[in-house]
Amino acid sequence: MQIGWIELLDVRNYRTLSYRPSPRLNIIGGANAQGKSNLLEAVGVLLTGRSFRTSRLAEIPRLGADTALLAGEVRRDEGSRTLRRTLRKREDGLWQGTGEECPWARVVTFGWQDLEIVNGVPSVRRNFLDGFAARLYSSHRATFVRFREILTRRNRLLQERLPERVLTTRLGPWDEQFAVVGMELIGRRRRAAAALQTEIARVYPSLAGDRRALSGEHEKVEIRYRASVGEATEPQAMLTALERMRPAEMRRGQTLVGPHRDDLAIELGGIEARAFGSRGQQRLLALALRLAEVLPIRDAVGTAPVLLLDDALSELDGHVRDNVLREIRSAEQVLLTTADALDVPDAARWTVTRGEVAVA
């Protein structure tokens, strides 16, 4: 899949923009605070309806604007499709986004926030895994939303401080749904984690460029899904765990077992990655996790995702930078921002200056 063109009106610091990226590697340079990250964000919002930088739609439109417009063309072998999205300020002051969806359009983004996947709290890793699973399985997002609804209802009942017999009766129907939907969610997460493990075993050594890593003798990356129900696969195991935790849940007024308590273990050389090595190593591992998404997504959807890499090369050694550039050149279309001068043969080079994009 490729982006043929994108047009923006009142998005971040872009009053207007018409941009046609190269179908392969695009290096987007320029000083800080000129709009490089804003351009990548706009592409992501157009394709997915969501920003990789913020959850607040109000931050995306240009300051003082009441409406932001995004349009663009996505292409694959079978043809092309034009997408349009509108962000509009409602009378109550809240922002609303509307637009078309393309079932085969996929994007993989990397930004500085992704270091939290490696060294942050479990919820960040769960969000990362759910985002990846949603790009693999079209029904995953709906399952996740349904699970959150059930979890909210269940927690409300626990917070009512009802007598145990009454609470158990009222929780019964919700527990059954919680177990079924929860295990469905866990099942997809496990498959997504397994796909990541298979691919990162190739990607990380390729990026690190360590001969010992390439031979599997050093800094081997291990990814495992840690479920609060262990290795169980049937809903009954979840029901049993809920029953076992009932006294503690009644005391604390919240659900203490389930997919919302799980984690993704990321180990480098047999050590938890968040406790391992330098910031540069953690950044490289976070980037490798994102690049490990590409082939599984292509196999699942039939089209390769667009790569949006925001300042992905900073804090990396020179030879590692070269390895990263070699890896991403095999992707179908890449937009890579950088504040450094990069001489990459055959790459399209662009410069962003105060919300304007020009050929470098």
Written overview of the protein:
Strands 7-11-12-3-13-14 form a six-stranded mixed beta sheet, sandwiched between helices. A five-stranded antiparallel beta sheet has the order 2-1-4-5-6, covered by helices on one side. The model is unreliable at 211-217 (pLDDT under 50). The protein has two domains: 1-106 and 303-360, P-loop containing nucleotide triphosphate hydrolases (Rossmann fold, 3-Layer(aba) Sandwich), CATH 3.40.50; 117-299, RecF/RecN/SMC, N-terminal domain (Glutathione S-transferase Yfyf (Class Pi), Chain A, domain 2, Up-down Bundle), CATH 1.20.1050.90. Helix 5 (164-208) crosses helix 8. It starts with a strand and ends with a strand. The protein is 42% helix and 23% strand. The longest helix has 45 residues, at 164-208. The chain is an alpha/beta fold.
List how many beta strands DSSP finds.
14
Globular, elongated, flat, extended or rod-shaped: what is the shape? globular
Radius of gyration, taken over Cα atoms and rounded to an integer in Å = 22 Å
Uncertain spans, ≥5 residues at pLDDT below 50?
211-217
Determine the structural class based on helices, strands and strand pairing: alpha/beta
> What's the architecture of the largest domain, going by CATH?
Up-down Bundle
**Assigned CATH superfamily of the largest domain:** RecF/RecN/SMC, N-terminal domain
Termini Cα gap: 25 Å
In short:
The protein is an alpha/beta fold.
